[in-house]
Design brief:
mainly alpha, Arc Repressor Mutant, subunit A, 2 domains, 9 helices, about 0% strand
Length: about 190
Amino acid sequence: MNDTKKSIFESAIKIFSKCGYNGATMDAIASEAGVAKGTLYYHFKSKEEIFNFIVREGMELIKNSIEDVASEKDNILCKIKVLCRIQLSLVYESRDFFKVVMSQIWGEELRQLELRAAINKHICYTQSYLEEGMDKGVIKRGDSYLMAYTLFGTICSTAVYELINDDKGSLDQLIERQLKYILEGIQERK
């Protein structure tokens, strides 16, 4: 991504997060990015095109971050932990992107359908890790697609937890606690 598109990407996330999709304007995005409106229109025809771009690029950045670290791990359970850790970290570090995604997940407009397709693609990516874990005997056999959605939902709920509780604890501690619940469950073992 070139510098101009990167600036538009980051600025659009801020504006969509702050104003919502309906309140965001091309003028506000151009102003935040420090580019002329003509430059913005040179790269993107509409606000919806910008929205779809930030979703595609944002999801690709998440995937690339996971793959960069997970590729260094031999153990599939370590890879799954990396997947969870990076996603949980991104909820905190990329709070605005997360807000944009979650605010537009419901509805039947084209951008919302495309957003759900991008999330489903990410879920399928997560599913492949879980299936590898099942094949290697470290994850219980079951509906890997549902498990991937459950994992995604658990990670999303962490953002809600943080938003409501404004947890002042260490991010690493919160991630470790969350990983323990994800991987070991909440049932007491006797």
